[in-house]
Amino acid sequence: MEIALPLAIGVLVAAAAYLLMARDLPRGLLGFVLLGTAANLTIFAAGRIGTMTPPLVAPGAQALEAGAANPLPQALVLTAIVIGFGLASFALVLLRRAHAEFGSVMSEDMQEAEPPLAAAPPAEPAPTPPPARPRPVPAPAALREVV
Amino acid sequence: MSIAPSLALGLPLGLGLAGAIAATMMKRGVAQAGAAVAALAFLLYLLAAPGVTETTDLRFGFWSVPSLGVVGGLRLDGLSLVFVLLITGIGALVLLYASRYLKGDTRLPRLVTLLLIFMVAMLGAVTADDVVTLFVFWELTSLASFFLVAYDHEKPGARKAALQALLVTGGGGLALLAGLILVAMAAGTTSLSGIIAAREAVLAHPAAIPAMLLVVLGCFTKSAQFPFQFWLPNAMAAPTPVSAYLHSATMVKLGIYLLARLNPVYQHEAFWQELLTTAGLLTTAVGAIYALRESDLKRVLAWTTVTALGSLTMLIGLAPALSATAAVTFLLVHALYKAALFLVAGIVDHETGTRDAAALGGLRRAMPLTALAAVLAALSMAGLPPFVGFVAKEIIYEAKLATGGAAGLFASIGFLVNAAMVAIAGLLSWRLFFGPLRPTPATPHDPPKSMLAGPILLAGLGLLAGAAPSLVGAWLVDGAVAAMLGAPAAVPLKLWHGFTPVLALSAATIALGLLLLLAWGRLMPRLRRASAFDRFDTARLYDRALAGLVAWAEGTTRLVQHGSLRGYMQVLLLVAALGPLAVLVARGGLDLPEAAPLDFRALAFLPIALGAIAAAVARGTLAAVMATGLVGFGTALVFLTFGAPDVALTQFTVEVLLIVILATVLIRLPVRARDVRTGRQRTVDAAVAGALGLSVALVLLAVLAAPFDPRLGEWFGAESVPGGHGRNVVNVILVDFRALDTLGEIAVLAIAAFSVIALLRASGRGARVGS
Amino acid sequence: MDASLILRVSAPLLLWVPAIVSLYLLIRGHNEPGGGFVGGLVASAGLVFFVISRGRQAALRVMRVPPAGWCGIGLLLAAGSGLLAWIDPAAGYLTHRWWFPDVGFKVPLGTALLFDVGVYLTVIGTITAMVFALVDED
User: Fold this and answer.
1) Is the domain covering A3-52+72-109 a CATH 3.30.420.40 domain?
2) Angle, vertex CA B461, rays to CA B459 and CA B463, nearest 5
3) Do the chains contact at C130 and A78, CB–CB below 8 Å?
4) Where in this chain does the record put each Na+/H+ antiporter MnhB subunit-related protein domain (chain C) (predicted)?
5) Segment B372-391 mean pLDDT
6) Pick from B684, B714, B744: which residue ends a domain?
7) Are residues B355 and B437 in the same domain?
8) Does C42 touch chain B (CB under 8 A)?
9) Which of B100, B220, B594, C14 registers the highest number of CB atoms within 10 A of its CB?
10) Would you call A71 an interface residue with chain C, using a CB distance cutoff of 8 Å?
11) What is the pLDDT of residue A134?
12) Which residues are within 8 A (CB) of B72 and not within 5 positions of it... i.e. 6 or more apart?
């Protein structure tokens, strides 16, 4: 159990990372959601797993019986799930706004504040044509005017 | 008569600062007020002068930071006295001059403020007795110079010149800081007088030579020595009063000041002597040649200033009593005539509308008083008796001839350079004011008294000092020489030395200079066309270095900010993968946890792993969303089977909501159905992703193999009912034990909601979620 | 929204059943699985279905107060529940107080419940704000 769950989490993290590096933002968003799930599972596992008994005190008892699950990681994960959902929704709203603004969901097409991609070191052929909006002048060129 | 050191040393600085602040609020008479402040400071120093002799000084405000081993304060000795009198005296005249020169300029208050700040900085620098105070004021002069050169900041040329001056002097300042720290460490004290007293320790330190080189580098950049001379002529973009004050009389001599100040430490070191004399000699030659290539009056003067600064450096390097006397005398003389000539050049520019020497001539009749000042100053510059310039030149020749082996070289280069100076002096007096009147853009006439006062007074002082050199010697030079050499040793100043070889040399200099003057009209354009001088100009090195820096910055920016989100993610994820792995390896490899045997519950892991892989390789976005949902439900299942019903319930609800929302939204976007990465990109990404997955799995295994401390969970389990009156321990933790954390978390949620509402409002679309 | 007839007809059912369930989860949360977070999520699920089937305006009418208001009330309630702790000046902020009035059997009343209601309202406000933003443009 203690070996199988980390391996499953490893697969989950790898998939999340693979999606995060995608060039379209919807896939990146899914990667973000999966990474959050992986983080929650990691916290849960780090608090030790094994028992199936929930951390509920039996009626009439004063203390949690020995052998119940560790309640602390559960409390942490519970709020983390809700916050992760809130952030994913927020990212989705941003994605909608970006799509309305740029007419695309490709990260390459959203380069308002970046230098032209043509000079990027991983010189890969861009399948999408570069957008027509004017590129901002990169900072060093602005410095050149002064010196 | 005597004056309290606190008044003489502290008050001028306070007055200057108060004046600088007051100047920002004044509307009228601001430059006159500034001049009054400077004059008052001059008077205070003058009153203190009797207390400063070859063997006595004034001290004030000594402070210390024992934890840093820093002690310091202000100290007025012979060398400082020469400087403070020049700074305040010329400062007063320049400010008075500026009141007319920049009349009606709305930026005048700013100029006065900056000039007064500069004056305070200079006074602080030359009276500081510790390297920390000295350095702070030193840098302040560079800053003030930057703002003053960039006075006409709408002009690109002025901005460029200001930046150049700042980079060269500021870069030298960094070297100086390092050098001063090394010297102070070697001496065991930051006090300048202490460093001089600890001369042996400073020289014996292993880093003595690098320390000296760093200090000298700072001085050379500040005083425009070769190869850093190029910034000074460019700094002529500043208004003329600024050029006269900062870039001829005072600031550029700060490097000379520090060389002279530290001379007692290094004076017997052959390396110091050779470095200073060589650089000085080269600088004089470069300055003289380039001065003959210019026709802009201010640039001509700037290059002659470079020559003069070279002479001073060389004289300090020559070391014996004679050359020290020559250095101090020449320092005084040069400040007087050069400031006067700059102010004359400003008047000519102001009144005629041009400062091109080739286009000017015969101004004597139109502006007789200006002509008088120019002639007096020029005679001093040319080194003719009875002017103090003659005294200085004689003694410089004497010093050069007394150097022994290299005397011939020094004297012959000095001879040629001096002849060039004679020619320039002639250019600035004879050619400008005599001969046929040439037409100018404006009709020339003498300026008002406030503008004439400076040049006439300064030029006249040159004549008076020449007439009574021994008085000047006793009063100012001797004390400064004693400070430069560490002991009283000045050679008496005389106007008339009798018929000596030196006198013959002087006469020959003047003769050659007059020949050069006659040929100037043809010589200057030819020298200017000679491109060899441009090719070997060290300004090119500066330009190339700066261009290289910018290119490097561009390259770095492109490398690390290439604009590809995918690239950023790759770097981030790769670091996240390799960092923990490196720690794991460094800690001695991997321990596997003791694992319970797999049972049916392990089936719950399957949807997670399978869903994750499916989401990654899904062709369409909707399929990827569904696979993501599968992972979520699998996760809920894991929570449920391992005793976390609350978490499972939450995860389950969230997953339902997420899938509904994602499907609703993404289905409406005209989303490219396929992952658009190329095959090669997928391979690279899969490798990075695999590395991260492996790293996380291994680290988690290592974590689970470590012993676990269950006390925290047990405490919550035991306290939940008695303390929190609730049997659901998870809920009690959330709403009671860690309620403050939960409050923060729901605040985050609310902020996210408000952000969405604001985002929609800002976009101006129909959505009005909040209303 | 071009929701199907089935969805439109069943929308009130999909709204009110989760709402009642969510209240049940909220109340029992202190002793059994449940609580403000889960309850809020379940109630939001009902509202999300309602928004998708009936539109934003209809949902807003049901909610009476816009989502931002739910967030604000929830935050204030949660933050305010901690203030009652200062009935005992020595207690720290958010130390919950309990009363056990006897109405035949003991009813446990605590400020912790108030806090959980705050969480519940904030979660509902947040999620409905997001959903309103996402399904708005049509």
Assistant:
1) no
2) 80
3) no
4) 6-128
5) 80
6) B714
7) yes
8) yes
9) B220
10) no
11) 45
12) B62, B63, B64, B128, B129, B130, B131, B132, B133, B190, B191
Question: Which of A4, A93, A122 faces B756 most closely, judged by CB atoms?
Answer: A93
CB contact under 8 A, A15 and B612: yes
User: Quick check: B761 and C130 in contact, CB under 8 A?
Assistant: no
A54, A93, A100: residue with CB nearest C130: A93
Query: Among residues A77, C34, C81, C113, which one has the least CA distance to residue B724?
Result: C113
- Kindly determine whether residue A79 and residue C130, on different chains, have CB atoms separated by under 8 Å: no
Same domain, B343 and B328: yes
Q: Full-prediction pTM beyond 0.80?
A: no
Per-domain boundaries in chain A: 3-52+72-109
CB contact under 8 A, B649 and C34: yes
Tell me which of B521-530, B748-757, C41-50 is least confident.
B521-530
Q: Is the same domain home to B465 and B519? A: yes
ipTM of the complex, rounded to two decimals: 0.91
Three-state DSSP string of chain C: CCCCHHHHHHHHHHHHHHHHHHHHHHHHCCCCCCCHHHHHHHHHHHHHHHHHHHCHHHHHHHHCCCHHHHHHHHHHHHHHHCHHHHHCCCCCCCCCCEECCECCCECCEEHHHHHHHHHHHHHHHHHHHHHHHHCCCC
Final residue before a domain boundary, out of B529, B549, B573? B529
* Nearest chain C CA: its distance from B595 CA (Å): 29
What is the mean predicted confidence (pLDDT) over B154-178? Answer: 91
Same domain for B368 and B515, yes or no, is yes
Of A56, A78, A93, the CB nearest to C133: A93
* B598 and B571 belong to one structural domain: yes
Scanning the structure block, which residue is given the tokens 């989502």?
C67
B610 and B754 co-located in one domain: no
CB contact under 8 A, A62 and B722: yes
Cβ contact A2–B559 (<8 Å): no
pLDDT at residue B534, as a whole number: 77
Residue B1: pLDDT band with limits 50, 70, 90? very low
Q: Closest-CA residue in chain A for C134?
A: A93
- C21: contact with B, CB 8 A cutoff: no
The verdict on B603 and B501 lying in the same domain is no
Closest in B550, B558, B693 to A11, CB measured: B693
Q: What Å distances lie between residue B609 and A15, A80, A111, B341, CA to CA?
A: 9, 21, 35, 86
Where does residue B405 rank: exposed (0-12), middle (13-18), buried (19+ CB within 10 A)?
Answer: exposed
Does the residue B567 lie in any domain?
yes
- Judge contact between B272 and B212, C-beta under 8 A: yes
Q: Provide the domain limits for residue B604.
A: 563-714
Say whether pLDDT at B771 is over 50.
no
Contacts of C119 in chain B (CB under 8 A): 734-735, 742, 746
Residue B51 lies in a domain: no
Task: Compare CB distances from B735 to C74, C115, C134 and report the shortest one's residue.
Answer: C115
From chain B, which residues contact C within 8 Å (Cβ)? Answer: 645-646, 649-650, 653-654, 656-657, 660-661, 664-665, 724-728, 730-732, 734-736, 739-740, 742-743, 746-747, 749-750, 752-754, 756-757, 759-760, 765-767, 769-771
Model confidence at B262, in pLDDT bands (50, 70, 90)? very high
Residue B733 belongs to a domain = yes
pLDDT tens figures, B562-579? 878 888 999 999 999 999
* B473, B611: one domain: no
